[in-house]
């Protein structure tokens, strides 16, 4: 089995103080995508650039203490792609793609952090621009290779994917336009929400607000995904949202696949 984990760290230094590295060492991941690293190379290199024997590849934001994604892997990739949109979003450090091409197979594992629009109209407009560009990018990528994009998508797709869906229909993360984007990605572009192929139950959340008693009452959202091409999605066998410890306001999403790199 190939174990693939995604986790929004909400700061790699902060997560480390809460036991993230010790947990990673015993979880048995073959590859781990992390988002919101909130650090630059001067912090990561020599301290966080490897994790339980996995080598890390990072796409940093230009702005200090902001965004940033990483991808740790036991097997060295044949290529690493940093960024997908040099015009705007690559400056925010949101995309790292590790390619594993051998024989007749082309496979990519991607760690990606979608923007949040919750801070106001300007960032929501940026989020919509990101979604439009990402859709075209993933459609194009699907013509070339199999892939699994893991990360914080910042969208709860359906009513089952957040606790208070009625009260959030005008809030970023559950806007009709965002949900329609996700539906189009799955139904028209043909990608697969891997978690939902294995688990169709309610109250399966990966993020909880720090306000009120959201964590204690399990008032959450499912914002973290594995989005995959159908061929590799069909190899998914087991899923698990790890909630026994908290390293962040997000929980790790763990999916086991029946393939090897």
What are the defining features of this structure?
261 residues, alpha+beta, seven-stranded mixed beta sheet, 23% helix, 29% strand
What would you report as the Rg, rounded to the nearest angstrom? 17 Å
Proportion of beta-strand residues: 25-35%
In the sheet with the most strands, the strands line up as 3-4-5-2-1-15-14
Helix/strand class? alpha+beta
The N- and C-terminal alpha carbons lie at a distance of 10 Å
- Helical content (DSSP H or I, runs of 4+): 10-25%
Instruction: Count the E strands.
Output: 15
List unreliable stretches of 5+ residues: none
Structure summary:
Helices cover about 25% and strands about 30% of the residues. The protein contains 7 helices and 15 strands. It is globular.
Q: What does this protein look like?
A:
This protein is of the alpha+beta class and 261 residues long. The chain is built from 7 helices and 15 strands. The protein has helices spanning 12-17, 20-27, 41-44, 121-142, 176-187, 194-198, 230-233, and strands spanning 2-8, 31-35, 50-51, 54-59, 69-73, 79-82, 95-102, 105-113, 146-152, 192-193, 207-208, 220-221, 224-228, 236-241, 253-257.
């Amino acid at each position: 089995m190939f174990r693939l984990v995604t986790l929004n760290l909400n700061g790699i230094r902060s997560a480390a103080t809460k036991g993230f590295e010790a947990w990673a060492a015993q979880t048995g991941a073959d590859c781990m995508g992390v988002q919101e690293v909130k650090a630059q190379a001067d912090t990561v290199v020599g301290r966080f650039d490897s994790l339980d024997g996995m080598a890390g590849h990072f796409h940093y934001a230009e702005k200090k203490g902001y965004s940033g994604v990483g991808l740790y892997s036991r097997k060295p990739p044949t290529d690493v792609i940093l960024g997908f949109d040099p015009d705007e979003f690559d400056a925010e450090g949101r995309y790292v793609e590790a390619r594993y091409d051998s024989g007749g197979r082309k496979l990519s594992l991607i760690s990606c952090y979608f923007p949040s629009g919750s801070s106001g109209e300007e960032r929501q407009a940026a989020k919509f621009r990101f979604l439009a560009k990402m859709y075209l990018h993933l459609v194009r990528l699907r013509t070339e290779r199999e892939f699994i994009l893991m990360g914080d998508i910042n969208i709860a797709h359906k009513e089952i994917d957040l606790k208070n869906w009625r009260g959030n229909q005008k809030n970023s993360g559950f806007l009709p336009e965002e949900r329609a984007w996700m539906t189009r990605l799955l139904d028209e572009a043909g990608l697969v929400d891997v978690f939902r192929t294995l688990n169709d139950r309610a109250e399966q959340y990966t993020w909880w607000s720090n306000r009120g008693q959201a964590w204690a009452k399990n008032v959450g959202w499912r914002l973290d995904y594995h989005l995959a091409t159908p061929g590799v999605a069909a190899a998914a066998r087991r899923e698990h949202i790890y909630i026994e410890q908290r390293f962040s306001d997000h929980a790790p999403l763990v999916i086991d696949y029946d393939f090897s790199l």
